[in-house]
């Protein structure tokens, strides 16, 4: 089984990338072995989902790495060793993975499909909607996800 865990905050501009990917995947027919969930900023929900024995978990999120906005990344994170930084109303995937480990879980293989953001609204002003380059990258990310689950199912 594969979990595609889409995360992000729709009120912070391009941070809603993962949520938009989940929304578009919801209208497609997926293999029965693929489960797509929109976790938004619900870090505890994602942590408890990762306690399940998934063959592969793919986190989908905005990832600022310094490339051009709209660049899609495939990242295999290093194993998580540190104590958790609990964020009940925020979503930091690496903190979630640390929380899973501290709860005694051992998530299987984790990949991240990320997109370089152009604009993230501030937590005070907010910003709705994706920028043009990030909006254009959603279909590229979905194609990458499909290529990944085809290799596993």
Helix and strand composition category: alpha/beta
* CATH-defined topology: Rossmann fold
Strand fraction equals: 15-25%
Q: What is the level 1 CATH name?
A: Alpha Beta
Order of helices and strands: EHEHEEHEH
CATH superfamily: HybD-like
Question: What value does the average pLDDT take?
Answer: 84
Overview in brief:
The chain is of the alpha/beta class and 153 residues long. The chain contains four helices and five strands, in the order βαβαββαβα.
Commentary on this structure:
- With 153 residues, the protein is α/β, with parallel strands linked by helices.
- It has one domain: HybD-like (Rossmann fold), CATH 3.40.50.
- Helix content is 31%, strand content 20%.
- The chain is built from 4 helices and 5 strands; from the N terminus they run βαβαββαβα.
- It has helices at residues 17-25, 43-49, 93-102, 132-152, and strands spanning 2-7, 34-40, 56-62, 72-75, 109-115.
- The protein has a 5-stranded mixed sheet, sandwiched between helices.
- The radius of gyration is 15 Å and the shape is globular.
- The model is unreliable at 82-89 (pLDDT under 50).
């Amino acid at each position: 089984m594969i979990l595609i865990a889409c995360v992000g905050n729709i009120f912070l501009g391009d941070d809603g990338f993962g949520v938009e990917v989940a929304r578009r995947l919801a209208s497609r027919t997926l293999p029965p072995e693929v489960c797509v969930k929109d976790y938004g900023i619900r870090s505890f929900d994602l942590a408890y989902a990762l306690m399940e024995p998934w063959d592969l978990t793919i986190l989908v999120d905005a990832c600022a790495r310094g490339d051009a906005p709209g660049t899609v990344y495939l990242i295999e994170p290093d194993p998580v060793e540190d104590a958790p930084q609990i964020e009940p109303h925020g979503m930091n995937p690496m903190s979630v993975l640390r929380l899973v480990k501290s709860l005694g879980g051992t998530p299987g293989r984790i990949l991240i499909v990320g997109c370089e953001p152009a604009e993230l609204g501030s937590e005070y002003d907010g910003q709705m909607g994706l920028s043009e380059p990030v909006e254009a990258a959603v279909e590229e990310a979905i194609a990458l996800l499909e290529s990944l689950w085809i290799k596993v199912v």
